[in-house]
Design goal:
5-stranded antiparallel β-sheet, disordered C terminus, 8 helices, alpha+beta
């Protein structure tokens, strides 16, 4: 059997979130090893974009895989500004599909569920920045908080966002547990 070799697989500069499969391919590990990195705080910024009662559909911040030292001390607002840029006010549906790596029907389901507020203009979904920011805040699965005044990047506690998806599994079970909604 031939040994594996590293592939030069660049990520498009517009791709800001990636799937579990991409994380596994990037790190060359299995899902449990990715989960161990999440539990250890090595991978901090993860969003669940699942609809309805689907099993978790996790999206990882690509920049955290490429430049973890850059991302180490960032807070949620800084990460969101990195994801969305600081200037754009309107996002088209196809751009949200690309941002979240989801299909058009999934974007519609997210709207129908009230998870993502948008409007249809000329047959196309349009989303205001505030709606996308609210979605990202609500769907953040796990991240680490720093002590006030600390810039060391060392996690002191795990905080979980408690939105209407209060049944999100604890970080240790994030890859295995099925979500249920009230």
């Amino acid at each position: 059997m031939l040994p594996q070799r590293l592939l030069n697989l660049p990520i498009n500069h517009r791709t800001v979130l990636v799937t579990m499969e991409m994380v596994r391919a990037n790190l060359g590990v299995d899902a449990e090893s990715v989960q161990a990195k999440v539990d250890a705080g090595e991978i901090r910024w993860i969003w669940n974009v699942a609809t309805g009662e689907r099993i978790s559909e996790l999206r990882f911040w690509a920049k955290e895989l490429i430049a973890p030292e850059f991302c180490a001390g960032l807070n949620l607002e800084q990460v969101i500004n990195q994801l969305l840029g600081e200037v754009r006010l309107i996002w088209r549906g196809v751009e949200i599909e690309h941002l979240l790596l989801v299909s058009r029907p999934t974007v519609k389901k997210l709207c129908d569920e009230g998870a993502l507020a948008g409007e249809i203009v000329g047959g196309t979904f349009h989303f205001r920045r505030a709606a996308v920011v609210n979605f990202l805040r609500a769907r953040l699965t796990t991240h680490f908080s720093l002590a006030p005044g600390s810039s060391s990047g060392q996690p002191i506690s795990v905080t979980r966002n408690k939105s209407r998806r209060s049944e999100l599994p604890a970080p240790k079970n994030i890859l295995r547990k099925k979500l249920t909604l009230p």
